[in-house]
Amino acid sequence: MGIYTRTGDKGMTGLIGARVGKDHLRVEAYGTTDELNSFIGKSMSELPDKLFGDLLEDLEEIQHELFDCGGDLATVTKKREEKLRPSSIERLEKRIDELTEEAPELERFILPGGTDPAATLHIARTVARRAERQVVRLMNAGEDVPETVLQYINRLSDYLFAAARIANFRLGRADVEYARSAKVFRNTKRTGKKGGDE
C-alpha cells in the first residue's frame, strides 16, 4: 500500500467528519500532539533500560494516549465515542507524585537541559505546553473539544517536567537553578503541592 494519496495536494485534509484546510486550528492542535509524540519517542531512545524501566513503560503508554488525543481532536462528527479516558489523567497524576517524591527538593526555576534524555524531555514539555495553548485556542474559537484532552495535555507537561528531573537525578547530573530565580516552588515533599506553572 502506498503512503501518498495526492488528496492533500491542494492544501486540504480530512478530519473524521469533514474536510478542512491544513492550516485549520484543529489540524494545528492534533499535528502538535504528533510532534510531541515524536519527541517522546526520541527521549525513549536516549533512556538506558536498566535505570529507566518505569519511565519507558510510562512513555510508551503516553504515546498511545497521544494517539487517542489526536483521534479525539480530529473528530467532528456529532456522535462520537471519546478515545481518551479520565483514568489516563489519574494515572499521570499518580506518577507525577511518585517522581516528585523521588527527586531532590525543588525551590527555584531550573534551566532545561542536563543529560541528553532530560534535555529531550524538556523539549517535549514545551511542545506539550504549545499543544495545550492550541487546544485552548480551538475551544475559544467555538470548536467542540473533549475536556479530557485539555486536562490530559496539561498534566502531561507536568509529568514531562518531573521525568526530566528524574532523568538527570538517576544519571547523576544535578539540575541547574536559574540564577535570578526567587523561591517559586513550595516544599513538595512536605505539602504534596507544587507552585510555579499551572
Automatic annotation (TrEMBL):
Protein's pathway: Cofactor biosynthesis; adenosylcobalamin biosynthesis; adenosylcobalamin from cob(II)yrinate a,c-diamide: step 2/7
Reactions catalysed: 2 cob(II)alamin + reduced [electron-transfer flavoprotein] + 2 ATP = 2 adenosylcob(III)alamin + 2 triphosphate + oxidized [electron-transfer flavoprotein] + 3 H(+); 2 cob(II)yrinate a,c diamide + reduced [electron-transfer flavoprotein] + 2 ATP = 2 adenosylcob(III)yrinate a,c-diamide + 2 triphosphate + oxidized [electron-transfer flavoprotein] + 3 H(+)
Q: Which UniProt keywords apply?
A: ATP-binding, Cobalamin biosynthesis, Nucleotide-binding, Transferase
Q: Which Pfam families is this protein grouped with?
A: Cob_adeno_trans
Q: Which Gene3D superfamilies match?
A: Cobalamin adenosyltransferase-like (1.20.1200.10)
Q: Which InterPro entries match?
A: CblAdoTrfase-like, CblAdoTrfase-like_sf, PduO-typ
Any one GO BP annotation for this protein? cobalamin biosynthetic process
Which parts of the chain are coiled coil?
none
Instruction: Give the Cobalamin adenosyltransferase-like domain ranges.
Output: 3-166
Gene Ontology molecular-function annotations:
ATP binding; corrinoid adenosyltransferase activity
* Signal peptide bounds: none
EC identifiers of the protein: 2.5.1.17
Q: Which PANTHER family match?
A: CORRINOID ADENOSYLTRANSFERASE, CORRINOID ADENOSYLTRANSFERASE MMAB
Q: Which NCBIfam families match?
A: PduO_Nterm (TIGR00636)
Q: Family assignment?
A: Belongs to the Cob(I)alamin adenosyltransferase family.
Provide the assembly information: Homotrimer.
State the name under which the record lists this protein: Corrinoid adenosyltransferase
